[in-house]
# Entry
Amino acid sequence: MRRTHLTVVIAILILALAAPVQAARIKDIAGIGGVRSNQLVGYGLTVGLMGTGDDVKNGYTRETIANMLSRQGLSMRDRIANVKAKNTAAVMVTANLPPFAKNGTRIDCTVSSLGDATSLQGGTLIMTPLRGPDGEIYAVCQGPVLLGGFSAGGANAAVTKNQTNVGIVVNGALVEKEVVTDFAQSPTFTVNLYNPDFTTVRHMAARLNALMGAQISAFPKDSGTVVVRVKEAYLPHIMEIVAEMENVDIPVAIPAVVVMNEKTGTVVMGENVRISTVAVAHGNLSITIKENLQVSQPLPFAPRPPEQGAGAIRDEKSGTVVAPGGQTVVTKDTTVKVQEEKRQLMVLPQGVTIQEVVQSLNAIGVSPRDLITILQTIKAAGALQAELRVI
# Structure
C-alpha cells in the first residue's frame, strides 16, 4: 500500500515539473460527450407593430394570417386579399435547448423578420411551436419582442440605431418536452476537447489517472477524445466524480499559429511561433498625384472672340467685340511626387521567440499591414515554423 501511494506521489511530481505554465480546467477546454444544447426553430407571427410590418401581398404572410384567424373561428379565406395589415410580420423563431432542461423551464428565443417588415419594435410574438431536427415540438414561445435599437423617421428623413428586424423574447420559450439521456446510468463517458491536440489529450489522461485513479480510469482515444470509465464501486456517485474531474487543471499544448485579418490589419501570434534564419528588407514606394483646379475670372466686359458666345456687343471706336460678364476659364495644375523609403536589410536569427520577432520587425518600422505581407513572404520562403491563417 505504501509503495502504491509513493508511486502516485512521484507521478504527480513528475507531471507538475513537466507541465508548462499554460494550464486550464477541463471544463474550460473540453465538454462531456452527449452533454450539449440542441437547436430549435419555428415559424410564427409578430403582431402589434405600428405600421412597420409586412405587406400582405407576399403570399406566406397573407396565408399565415388566414390560418391564424381560422383557428380562432374566423373564416377569412375569401376576403384575405382585401386585408391591409401593416402591423403584422412573419418571423422565424430560434432557440437553444440547454442540456437536461426539464418541462416548464423557460429559455430565451430570437425573433427574426422573414418578410419586408421595416421594424419589429413594439411587437408581440404569437404562440409559436419550436421543433427540433426530428420534427418534434420541444418548446413553445410567446411574448413581447425586445429590440436592441430603434427606427424613426418622416417623409424626408429617418434615423435607425442597430438592427430593428431582429429581437429577443426574454424567457419567452416554455420547454414542453425533455431530451432523454442516460448519462448517469452509463459507466463510461467521453471528454471531448474543443481544440483537438494529441499532447493535451495525453496530459489529460495522465493527470486524471494520477489524481483520481482510485475512482476512474482514463485513456486517450484520439486527438480530441479521452474515454473515462468509472469503477463499479463509484457508479452511484458519477455526478460527484464529473464535478470533481472538470475542475482539474491540466497542461494545454498551444500550437504555433499566426492569425491575420487583412481587412482590419490585425495580426495575432502565439508564443510558440519560431522563425528560421532569414533576411528581411522592407521599403515603401509612395507615389502622390495632386491636382489643383485654377479658375481665371476676367473683369466685366472683357474682350473675347465673337464666336465664343451670343449677345456680344461691338465697340464702335475700337471695333472690339465684348460680352457682359466676361469668360471664366478653368485649368488643371498636376503635381506628381515619388518617395521611396530606404530600409536596411535585417537578419532574423534561427529560433527567435515571438518577442524577438516583434522587436526586430518594429526596428525596421513596419506597420500591422506591412507585417502581414512580411509574414506571408517569410512563410513562402519556408522560414516561418507556424501555421498561417488568413481570415
